[in-house]
Write a structure and sequence with these properties.
Blueprint lengths: L11 E8 L11 H15 L3 E8 L9 H11 L3 E6 L2 H4 L3 H13 L3 E4 L4 E2 L3 H34 L11 E4 L2 E4 L1 H15 L4 H11 L11 H8 L2 H6 L2
Parallel strand pairs: 1-2, 1-3, 3-4
Antiparallel strand pairs: 4-5, 6-7
Helix pairs in contact: 4-5, 6-7, 7-8
Length: 238
């Protein structure tokens, strides 16, 4: 008995757009803006986009996203010929994940196309350039993270305020000024913690002293833990 032939599947061109939560309000990276630019690019090259896959409020730190999952499944099934993105960082910000995607696409004969970088991984040269750009982008992110860490460390050493005002202090301009009652409460909380008392007992002590957390109306185990682990409070408590 002859095996039944599998029906031919037409390989499709799909678009992928993504924004993370903090980017949604920025001009030029909205989902609609990305989709419009991809559509214009595809039209110019004569490609018909059959589907737009969206990941709204999703970080590119990993590939664990519903939209990417759909694309990976489509590529593995041989249903997708190319995926068009506005920029490489819309797909991933990790060189490891980028390599994973490129290997997957190459194995199944699919291409990753970036509009802004004018790249198409259908060619070996395109895959090489994409890999190089991914390495450079990761280096830039790590360099920014190092500079940010150094800047925040300097601010802490100078007693400058940044972010939410930690318990134990109040703001006077850019400076942090110790609040005596809160500082004493921190010292007692630390003594109790070192003695093995639970966070709930420490929260009760703080409530009895009449000191209130800077956020929220009452002390809880979670707010006690956050207060005791505050780096700036640990460094400057007197």
């Amino acid at each position: 008995m002859r095996a039944r032939k599998q029906p031919h599947r037409e390989r499709r061109t799909v678009a992928y757009v993504r924004v993370s939560t903090e980017e949604q309000a920025r001009e030029g990276v909205s989902l609609d803006a990305q989709e419009a630019r991809i559509a214009a690019y595809a039209l110019a090259l004569g490609w018909e986009v059959s589907e737009v896959v969206r990941d709204a409020g999703a970080s590119a730190k990993s590939l664990k996203r519903p939209g990417i999952d759909r694309i990976i499944a489509g590529v593995r099934a041989g249903e997708i010929d190319r995926v068009i993105i506005l920029k490489l960082d819309r797909a991933t910000r990790s060189t490891r994940d980028l390599a994973t995607l490129l290997d997957l696409f190459a194995k199944h004969g699919a291409a990753l196309v970036s509009v802004s970088e004018h790249l198409d991984t259908a060619s070996a040269a395109g895959r090489l350039v994409v890999n190089m750009l991914g390495v450079v982008a990761q280096w830039e992110r790590e360099a920014i993270a190092e500079r940010t860490s150094l800047a925040l460390s300097h601010k802490r050493s100078q007693g400058h305020a940044y972010g939410p005002t930690p318990f134990g202090y109040r703001r006077e301009g850019a400076e942090l000024v110790a609040v005596a009652a809160e500082q004493e409460a921190i010292r007692e909380a630390r003594r109790m913690s070192v003695a093995g008392r639970p966070y709930r007992a420490i929260a009760n002590m703080l409530e009895e002293r009449g000191v209130r957390p800077h956020r929220g109306r009452a002390w809880h185990a979670s707010t006690v833990r956050a207060m005791l682990s505050s780096r700036i409070a640990q460094e400057q408590v007197i």
